[in-house]
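[audit] Reproducing an earlier prediction to check determinism. Same input, same settings, fresh worker. If the C-alpha cells differ from the archived copy the diff job will pick it up downstream; this log only records the rerun itself.
[audit] input (392 residues):
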Amino acid sequence: MPSNYRTIYMDHAATTPVHPEVFYSMKPYLTSRYGNPSSAYHLGEYSAQAIAKAREQIAKVIHAHPSEIYFTGGGSESDNWALKGVVDYNRIRARQNRCHIMTTAIEHPAVLNSAVYLKEKGIEVDFLPVDREGRVNMKELMHKTKPQTVLLSVMYANNEIGTIEPIDALGDYAKLHNIIFHTDAVQAFGQVPIDVKKSQIDLLSASGHKLGGPKGVGFLYVRKNCPLEPFVHGGGQEQGKRSGTENVAGIVGLGKAAELASQNMEERRKRISAHRDMLAKLLLQQIRGSHINGAKGEERLPGNLNITLPGVNATELVAKLDEQGVLCSTASACSAHKSHASHVLTSIGLTEEEALSTIRLTLGEENTMKQIYYVAQLIPQMVKEMEEDAAR
C-alpha cells in the first residue's frame, strides 16, 4: 500500500458511507433515548414517535401512505417476505393449490434463491429472459402468464449493469391480469424518482445502506389490502406482520437517509451521470475492445459503469486497484468471493470469459472529476502492464 494512500471509493452499489446527518439523527436512540417503542412510558414514546416519523419520511419519497411501510432487517429480508408471503397467502388463505410466479434471470440472489426455494416446495416458477441491455422480455412475460400466476417480481434497476426496467409497463400488465407486482428497488430507492401508485407497484423492497443509511435495516412497501402473510410472528410489531423489537436507531437513520436522498435528486443524478459518462468515455478510448454493459442514458442508474476489458483478469485488476486505493468490484457484493461468472452478465449474452473480464465501478456523491481522471489514467495503465506480463 503506497505511503500516500487515499481511498477512492467507487463501489456505492455494494454499500455507501453513512451520511453525517444520518449518524447524528441515530445517535440519541443509541444513547439517551434507548426506550423500547412498545413501552408505555416517555422513553418508549420517544422511540415510537421516531419510528412514525421515519415511516412518513420514507412514504413521502415513494408516494405511499405511512401505514404501508413495514420495517425489516434489510433488502434481502424484504425480498424473501414479498415472494414467500404472497405464495403463503394464496396457498393458506385463498386455498389455491396451484401457484405460479415469474421473475427474471438477472435478479438479486435474495429473489432468485427465494424463487428456487419456492420451486422446491412445489410452486411453479418461470425465470424470464432479458435482452442484451438487461430489460425483461415482455413477449416472454405474456407467453408465460398463466391463470394461476399470483406474483411477478422484477427488480427496479439491476445492481450489476444498472439497467432500469420498464416498471410502468410491468405494473400495468400485472394490474390488468390481477397479478401482484413486486419490485426489488434496493438500487433504485433514493437514486431515481419512484411513484408506487403511478407504477401500480404492490410490493417494493429497499435497504438503508445503499443511500447513506445504516446497514441492517430496510423496508417493504405493502400496498393497502395486498394479500401478504406475516413474515415473523411474535409480539405484534409492524401491524402484526413483522414482529420483533424494532431497530429504532436504524429505522431513524433510514428515514433520514431517505429524506436527504430525495432532496436535489435530479441535480445529483445529472452530476453523477456526467462523471460516469466521462469515465466511460476515457476508458473506452484507451482500452482496445472494451465495451459497456447495460442500458444507456436515462435508462441506467446514474452512478453505474459496468465495463468489459477483453482478456483481462478482472479479479486480479480489482486487487491491483485496491493496492492503489481505488475500490471497485467485479460483480455484486454478494458474489465478490465467488469465482464463477456473473449470472447477470451471462444472461445478457456475455461469454464466461467476457464476464470474468468485467469490472463494475459505481460512483457516488463524493466522487470528484479529479478522481475520475485519475482512475481513467490508472486502469488503462494497469491493463497494459497485465497484458505485458501475460505476454512474457
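[audit] rerun output stored. Observation attached for the diff report: The mean pLDDT is 95.
[audit] end
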